[in-house]
Design brief:
By secondary structure, the protein is α+β, with helices and mostly antiparallel strands. The protein has one helix and eleven strands; from the N terminus they run αβββββββββββ. The strands form two sheets. Strands 7-6-5-4-1-8 form a six-stranded antiparallel beta sheet. It is elongated and about 70 Å long. The relative contact order is 0.15.
Length: 164
């Protein structure tokens, strides 16, 4: 093969590589930019698995996981020791009384990190019905919080404590 043919093939590959690099950069920019924007503008909150977290139910070890987000003001506590996994959203605002919500059928993912948007939070369920609610009565939560723990009464009446 002549030297001229080899040079023409090499020169043909250069524009193709450059085009692929530009396309790759554009794809990354268009995928990453919305995620970064929504995170820094407050529309999305990221929750991260709390390493070395432990759960107890009525003082006995329980299976589950804890995800923290929003500067430690929001915690998802997921129990996996029952028939079905159950997730609770615990909000701990600084200097205010916290709240506990059951997430119902929604369960926090097992991923080490996951985002939640502000338009449709998973645990804020409201019922509007003309008939009185005949569902199970939720016990008082009796939330207790500290620097590295939350403790509350679960839907089944057990006392759940999550530490991290």
């Amino acid at each position: 093969m002549s030297k001229a043919k080899r040079m023409s093939r090499t020169s043909d590959k250069l524009p193709m590589r450059r085009t692929l690099k530009i396309v790759a950069i554009l794809v990354v920019v268009f995928l990453v930019a919305p995620i970064v924007y929504s995170t820094f503008s407050g529309y999305t909150i990221w929750y991260f698995a709390a390493s070395h977290s432990r759960l107890t139910a009525d003082g006995r070890p329980a299976h589950g996981r804890v995800h923290r987000g929003n500067g430690g003001q929001t915690v998802f506590v997921t129990r996996t020791d029952g028939e079905k996994a159950t997730t609770y959203l615990v909000q701990i605002p600084h200097g205010a009384r916290g709240t506990v919500w059951s997430c119902g059928k929604w369960v926090a993912p097992r991923f080490p990190a996951f985002p939640i948007g502000d338009l449709n939070p998973p645990c804020w369920t409201f019922k509007v019905a003309e008939e009185p609610d005949t569902g199970p009565i939720i016990p008082p939560r009796r939330l207790a919080t500290g620097p590295n723990f939350v403790e509350f009464t679960a839907d089944d009446g057990s006392r759940v404590r999550a530490t991290w």
